[in-house]
Amino acid sequence: MDDIVGRVRQRIESGSPDPMGNAARAPAPAATRASIAADEQTLGFTLPPLLKRLYLEVGNGGWGPGYGLLGLTGGAQDDLGKTAVQSYFSYRRQESADPTWRWPTGLLPLCHWGCAIYSCIDCAQPRFPVLAFDPNGWDAYNDWSEAFFPECDGFDHGSDSGRMVTICGSVSMAMTE
Fold first, then answer.
1. Stated pTM of the model
2. Which of 17, 32, 53, 168 has fewest C-beta within 10 Å?
3. CATH number where 128 lies
4. Residue 43 sits in which domain range?
5. What is the pLDDT of residue 118?
6. What is the pLDDT at residue 16?
7. For residue 17, what pLDDT is reported?
8. Cβ atoms < 10 Å from Cβ of 119
């Protein structure tokens, strides 16, 4: 994990754009162990060890591809002014206009790509798989499960074709450069 954290820092410090052409952004100030523990208590689940290290040692969101990783409490926010924790609880609320809406328990929005598309980490699963959520094209009363689809097998585990599989391309791209 030390190598991954170092490579993410190096990528941010280099100022090189991500593969989508987005300029590198400065991370939000780092989270603390106490703030992460408080957020895990509030959320009702634990975060992957690598993600916690990135929040502690790189910054509390704001860095990465797309519009950057969402921070935890006190960290980087999306375009709606919400952190990952706030987004999770917002999505978990039942939409009264659509009784078919269900946000999966433990699925934490983590990277905003724009147009309401997010990469999310499934903290309810032991390998912490990463799923994309794309609600575009879905109307009320549709089967919302089809708006969620896999991006990678796990956040903290293994590799895919020799590159580290993580989230939002942030760490995996850092590993392949």
1. 0.82
2. 17
3. 3.40.1580.10
4. 2-176
5. 92
6. 77
7. 77
8. 25
First to last CA, the chain: 17
CB 7, CB 174: distance < 8 Å: yes
Q: How many domains does the chain have?
A: 1
Cα 128 from Cα 151, distance rounded (Å): 11
d(CA 47, CA 78): 19
> What's the chain look like in SS3?
CHHHHHHHHHHHHHCCCCCCCCCCCCCCCCCCHHHHHHHHHHHCCCCCHHHHHHHHHCCCCCCCCCCCECCCCCCCCCCCCCCHHHHHHHHHCCCCCCCCCCCCCCEEEEEEEECCEEEEEECCCCCCCEEEECCCCCCCCCCHHHHEEEEECCCCCCEECCEECCCCCHHHHHHHC
> How far is the C-alpha of 97 from the C-alpha of 87, rounded, in Å?
19
pLDDT < 50 stretches in the chain: 157-177
